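Bench notes, afternoon.
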Amino acid sequence: MKKLISFIIAFVISFTITAQTKEKSEFGKALKKTFKYSTFYGAINGGNSISDVDVYSVTNGLENSTIETPYDYSIALGVRKIARFGYENRADVFYDGTEKSYSDASNIGKISGFEFLFEADWKRQQGESYLNQHHFLRYVADDWIAKIEYLQDGFADIEYFEASQRYRHKFNNKFSVNVGAVQRLSEPYGYDPLEEWLLSNGNLHYTFLAIQEGYSVDFTDPNNITYSNPNGSVVATSTAVWEAVVIPQVLANYTERKRDQISSQFEYSFILGFDYYHYTKSFWLHSWGNIMPYHIETGSAYNYHKFSGGQWVDYSGGLIFGYKLNKNLGLFLEGKYNKYWNRNWHNFSVGINYIIL
């Protein structure tokens, strides 16, 4: 009996190890296939920012101070598997995180199938620090498209998550249209926390708001009014400084805190799009566009319907154009534009190249 039990235990262990090995082998093959031709990259880039600025004052005699702006830098981490279009000939051997590929925003890629991008970029530019992120998974078939995307552009102050499912109709190998649904998750764009503090004449009751936020005003001596922060420290001794320096910071902190207290909002929208791609060595045109003309009213108190007064139109698009007039002269135009809610962000590049032979 002991030998039989030992044999059964040994058989089970052997079978389990074999099954696990087979599963790992299958998983490894699938993982390798998924990441085949993809590139992992990380890079640190830096450089000097704007030059130091000398500031002079004659209030208490001649005084001089220097405003220094820390150096600019970026730290980029990412992985991408996106087939290059015919006009995208990489000149660099390595990815350094500073590349700008307008075609990443297109609805479809150069090939059918699964493509992805995951990139995070920590930046400091002219003393301002922010985070940019762009992640997406996209699958393109002959008659359908599915995509999930997360975008955070700290410089443009936009952040959202988006998923879309579309039916695609190909007219030929160059032009296709698509239609479907899109779901977006974002902060309550359009919500203005200061609206409730507006007076009937349109002015803002900012001092009362500051007092509600913990600031205090001492009018004991009319000739020496003092303004203190919630910690009790004096932050201004004149109305001019209070209004010009302290109040703007109070309003900024208040609006940011109020928005952070509200949960992210869902938008369910109808979407129409198109894609066109033509390429030869002397002429290429790649364009795409999307429009969301109708959005479902969810009933949320902070839904964008409340701030737009009803339906609104969101859209995005891009254009990449190149034309070599002859072996010496060439023209190019590249750009993309996005308008979501009350935010818009865009990039473009246009120019001419002349090669002297």
